[in-house]
Amino acid sequence: MRLWKRNPLPLVLLAAAFTAPVAYADPLAPGRALFKQSAVPACALCHALKDAGAEGAIGPSLDELKPDAARVAKALRNGIGQMPAYRDKLTEQQIETLSRYVARASGAQR
Ligand code: HEC
């Protein structure tokens, strides 16, 4: 105990070791970040999705539509109606991450 008072470093390292993995443990986090900001223009501007705190009303509510990942990916690659295509803005990997995220966050797929 007295040792820790003089040198708190071991405690700090211990705390870091336990908290750091938690920050990355949410499997939806990367897709959520794409949805909220990294995809430009952001999906959240036009779509409602509770998981992302998004309330956009230009496109359909994804909570209600519950598109599966294939349907999201198709909209992202080709665009649909007023929605721009993201094929040139996102990598194939980002499109997949985002598609899986929307499908899971909307409850369409687990
Ligand atoms: C500028 C506004 C806008 C932005 C930004 C936008 N969308 Fe859309 N989105 C729409 C509109 C409008 C529709 C309805 C198109 C139609 O059915 O004519 C739509 C439709 C969709 C659909 C349904 C496709 C289908 O098959 O019916 C999905 C899924 C979707 N958007 C996901 C996304 C995702 C994910 C992003 C972010 C990368 C995004 N949208 C960004 C406006 C937008």
How would you describe this protein?
The protein is mainly alpha-helical and 110 residues long. The chain has one domain: Cytochrome c-like domain (Cytochrome Bc1 Complex, Chain D, domain 2, Orthogonal Bundle). It is 56% helix and 4% strand. It has a two-stranded antiparallel sheet. Helix 3 (29-38) crosses helix 7. Heme C binds next to helix 4, helix 6 and helix 7.
SSE inventory with pairings:
Layout: H1 2-6, H2 9-23, H3 29-38, H4 43-46, E1 48-49, E2 54-55, H5 62-65, H6 69-78, H7 92-105
Antiparallel strand pairs: 1-2
Helix pairs in contact: 3-7, 6-7
This protein binds heme C.
Residues 39, 41, 43, 45-47, 58-60, 65, 67, 71-72, 75-76, 80-83, 86, 98, 102 line the site of heme C (HEC).
